[in-house]
Amino acid sequence: MQWLLLGVLVIIWAAFLIPVGRRRSDSRSVEDFERRMELLANAEVHGTTGRWIVTPRKGVRFLGPRERQQARARARRRRVFVFLLEAIGLTLLIGVVPPLRVAWFVSAALGGLLLLYVWALLVIKARAAAAPPRVVAAPHRVVEPRPTIEPDQHVSVLAAAGS
Known about the structure:
Layout: H1 2-17, H2 26-45, H3 65-95, H4 103-130, H5 151-162
């Protein structure tokens, strides 16, 4: 029992003490900010006047509103999936301790929820593949012809208005 507690403590300490490649130190981000500000200052000093054009990052395709919405939905679904996996792993670890074996029932419930979620994702994917591609046509504009006034009509209208 004590070796298990010691192992959990070692894992927790290792998670906090071992630097993760994704994390960046504050000093590094400050240095990046200063370097970018210097580049901007040098660009303005050396006579590069004109408009600044905001473009997508290099190698990244420009996404329209619909594609951006789909990308956000994918990211949200991925976060939910990973959360469920992590919750299952955590509750399984908690259930290893004898007085807390009830957590295994929570793990089983989360596992069932994960299976339902995966099934829902597969159904969504199948419906999206079966749906015809959405093409939005431009609205049809009916252009009514404008009434034309012939030169003779104009004169007769003026004559009638003057009488």
